[in-house]
């Protein structure tokens, strides 16, 4: 058995784990990352596309914003299409100049992995049988790596291992409470090398269900359709996807839509989920390991980033100033922001999707709410403030 001693063992090399690693490295704090997949697999997962300003700032602080600055697309508004009519929500005007940036999660991950490789930091990719133990006393992480058994002895474990990870699952049942809502539909996503249908994102509420027109660059588009959970990707040829998307769009967008062969196609279920607390002795949960939001509000990756902002400064405060205040307040601070993002994501999902169980009355009420939000300055401001991201 190989014994490795370090200060922080980070489980998972998604955006949360990688960003924490980079911020600890910048502060000179010794750590390792243990990931069950290969670096190539992690960097190729197609997921989020929208970064809040605070996430962009954090990537800048971590010193990994060169590609983001060069290739990210700043957006100062979004369009909402309802009743066949598009309406623009001017995010910047309503939030004193704030905006969001279109930059793929794959790019964020690649930039962070590259910075990590450049700094020659220790990562165990394709680790097997990862286990976390003794996090109420002297934390240990054990795993099998390249034919050998390893044990990491550390002060803290950062559980950045996503919704299906091992960290949350290792917490004794009587110490944890979870809250969950599962939605009765999924998002079918298509990535294609065609120019986006519009300069800004279009969120579509239609009688046939929700759709979203997003992008990764000026030549790469990302589109989503609300589909029943019983559908399989194989049921959706490219042709069927584009036809259905056109049916949900307004005539102008339908006319402008450029279609082409998909380079990725997948169905993601929608879920709201929160774990309380987010700290268990010397084990901290961060990102999807602690909470999930439905993607409608574009908050998942951004919440992972805000957890890491709190956790990195708490650990830096602990090691550099000898103060435990940050680590003691970590869970409460994160959860305050998490629940607000949960509320916003639930509300956007509820407002824009078609629920099979909703009565005609419920449907009319929803239309009235959307119409109110879009016609009122106060309503639009509420949407804009949450969309660009609440302050830390
Ligand atoms: P991740 O990215 O899931 O990374 C967790 C890592 O942990 C590894 N792992 C383990 N490693 C070692 N041992 C184990 N036992 C392990 N178990 C798991 C995994 O292999 C993985 O590498 O979590 P993290 O870092 O917390 O990041 C969260 C984000 O990935 C997620 O919130 C976003 O992708 C959500 N999301 C969006 N967020 C946004 O902010 N804006 C968006 O526009 C947005 N769109 C989306 C999304 C998620 C989507 N899907 C597919 C769920 C659109 C979609 C369709
Ligand atoms: C994406 O581009 O993948 C995306 C954008 C906005 C969302 C969700 C996903 O709300």
TrEMBL record:
Annotated protein name in UniProt: 4-hydroxybenzoate 3-monooxygenase
Keywords from the UniProt entry: FAD, Flavoprotein, Monooxygenase, Oxidoreductase
GO BP, one annotated term: benzoate catabolic process
Source organism phylogeny: Bacteria, Pseudomonadati, Pseudomonadota, Gammaproteobacteria, Moraxellales
Gene Ontology MF term list: 4-hydroxybenzoate 3-monooxygenase activity; FAD binding
Gene that this polypeptide is encoded by: pobA
Pfam families attached to this UniProt entry: FAD_binding_3
Stored InterPro entries: FAD-bd, FAD/NAD-bd_sf, HB_mOase, RIFMO-like
Record EC number: 1.14.13.2
Keyword match Flavoprotein: yes
Keyword Nucleotide-binding part of the UniProt annotation: no
Domain named FAD-binding: residues: 5-345
Signal peptide feature range: none
């Amino acid at each position: 058995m190989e014994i490795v001693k370090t200060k922080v063992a980070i489980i998972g090399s998604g955006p949360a784990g990688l960003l924490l690693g980079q911020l600890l490295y910048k502060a000179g704090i010794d750590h390792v990352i243990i990931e069950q997949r290969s670096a190539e697999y992690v960097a190729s997962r197609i997921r989020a596309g929208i970064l809040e300003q605070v996430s962009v700032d954090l990537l800048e602080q971590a010193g990994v914003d060169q590609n983001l600055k060069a290739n990210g697309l700043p957006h100062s508004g979004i369009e909402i299409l309802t009743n066949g009519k598009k309406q623009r929500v001017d995010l910047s005007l309503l939030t004193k100049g704030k905006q969001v940036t279109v930059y793929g999660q794959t790019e964020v991950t690649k930039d962070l992995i590259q910075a990590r490789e450049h700094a020659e930091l220790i990562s165990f990719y394709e680790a097997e049988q990862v286990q976390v133990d003794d996090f109420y006393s002297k934390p240990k992480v054990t795993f099998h790596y390249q034919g050998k058994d390893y044990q990491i002895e550390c002060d803290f474990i950062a559980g950045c291992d996503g919704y299906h990870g091992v960290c949350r699952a290792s917490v004794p049942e009587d110490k944890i409470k979870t809250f969950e809502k599962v939605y009765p539909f999924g998002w079918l996503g298509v990535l294609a090398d065609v120019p986006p249908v519009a300069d800004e994102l279009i969120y579509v509420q239609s009688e046939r269900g929700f759709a979203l027109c997003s992008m990764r660059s000026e030549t790469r588009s990302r589109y989503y359709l609300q589909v029943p959970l019983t559908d399989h990707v194989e049921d959706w040829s490219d042709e069927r996807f584009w036809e259905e998307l056109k049916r949900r769009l307004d005539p102008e967008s339908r006319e402008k839509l450029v279609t082409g062969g998909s380079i990725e196609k997948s169905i993601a279920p929608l879920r709201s989920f929160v774990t309380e607390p987010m700290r268990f002795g010397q084990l901290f949960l961060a990102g999807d390991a602690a909470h999930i939001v439905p993607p409608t509000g574009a908050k998942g990756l951004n919440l992972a980033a805000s957890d890491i902002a709190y956790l990195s400064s708490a650990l830096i405060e602990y090691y550099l100033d000898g103060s435990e205040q940050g680590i003691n307040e970590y869970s409460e601070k994160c959860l305050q922001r998490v629940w607000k993002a949960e509320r916003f994501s639930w509300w956007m999902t509820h407002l824009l999707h078609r629920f099979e169980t909703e009565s005609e009355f419920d449907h009319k009420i929803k239309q009235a709410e959307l119409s109110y939000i879009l016609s009122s300055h106060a309503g639009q401001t509420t949407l804009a403030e949450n969309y660009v991201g609440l302050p830390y």
